[in-house]
What does this fold into?
Amino acid sequence: MRPFDGRRVLLVVSGGIAAYKSAILTRRLIEAGAGVEVILTAAAERFIGRVTFEGITGRPAHASLWDRPMAHLDLGLEADIVVVAPATANLISRLAAGAADDLAATAVLASRAPVILCPAMNTRMWEHPITQANVARLVDVGYGIAGPADGPLAEGESGPGRLLEPEEILPRIGRALETATGLRGRKIVVTAGPTRAALDPVRFISNRSSGRMGFALAEAAWRRGADVTLISGPGRVPRPPGPDVVEVETAGEMLAVLETALTDADILLMAAAVGDFEPTRTADSKIKKGDGFQLLLRAGPDLLLETRAFRERKGIFTLGFALETEDLLARGREKLERKGMHLVAVNSAVERDAGFESETNRITLINRSGRVEELPLAKKTELADELLDRIEASMAAAER
Ligand SMILES: Cc1cc2nc3c(=O)[nH]c(=O)nc-3n(C[C@H](O)[C@H](O)[C@H](O)COP(=O)(O)O)c2cc1C
It folds into this structure.
């Protein structure tokens, strides 16, 4: 199932340079399964044509109060969520005043659905106390504010005022629409990616983990309303927007950040591929080719073992991964016991389409009572929700 299947989004586009990005946002929403109705302000129509949205959505885009009587009421009523992107200073001020002077403002005022505003404007306009007071007023009545981002603006200046990218807006809409609420307000710590152990200032040993499984878990948990800290090792895969991200490099750094993050955590999702070995010594300067080098390794810190006593004392629900090349189930069971997990997701390092670097995974779950469940091959993003469903269910059962 796609995350927005069956959901109806009313997208209100107001008149700023960033209006072109709302066409991409529309496309992404439709790809994710949403039905999208678009309203443009008169100024927005000067920046981007109605026909662009009509081509993307396959339905008429709306711009006037007078084209279709009652559209101003129907559009907001039928929507599961209203997204205003970009939200100009002008439209924000009109909404804050309760104005109903065009189709955009009237439809927002007449809707009972949650509203997310994505402001985009010049930094001076954004930071102006009047804009800030208008935003505060809208926050007060429950509107969500996504952005603006800090960065280069169209007029050549730089500062807060950029419209968030569609990829950043989408998960925020998902979080507002989410109906699986068992994780709402829970504090979840996710580890992801590989760690590195330095041989010298330019070389390291590491592993092939991309971080994708952990990122998918962090993104899904955040969308489901959790308060998520993602501790990530190095890598190129983009980090999910939403969770608080802490970047680390070594296993020791990951352990230190993890220990702090766990102090008020409810759940730990340990998807990082923490290096098992580290060199017995790290050279201070670059090892020369002619010098020769003998590599001696010792075991690095085991993050689950190091945190076991604390997790058990605090009752932190723990999911871990066991990536194995043979005896998958036996090794998974052994790790579950020894490392104090509630659920272990066993996957194969040698199977095609699973494990490291892949966008898909095949997981077998083992819980504390020994129950084994094989999940079919699926995208890591889909598996993340499957795993969270099971965690929610077993936490709910434990609390009953
Ligand atoms: C080239 C140009 C770019 C503009 N960009 C923005 C912008 O990014 N954000 C903003 O709040 N207003 C911007 N404005 C001003 C709005 O277009 C103007 O306030 C308009 O009345 C907004 O109407 P609306 O809020 O009904 O869409 C821009 C104006 C021009 C001419």
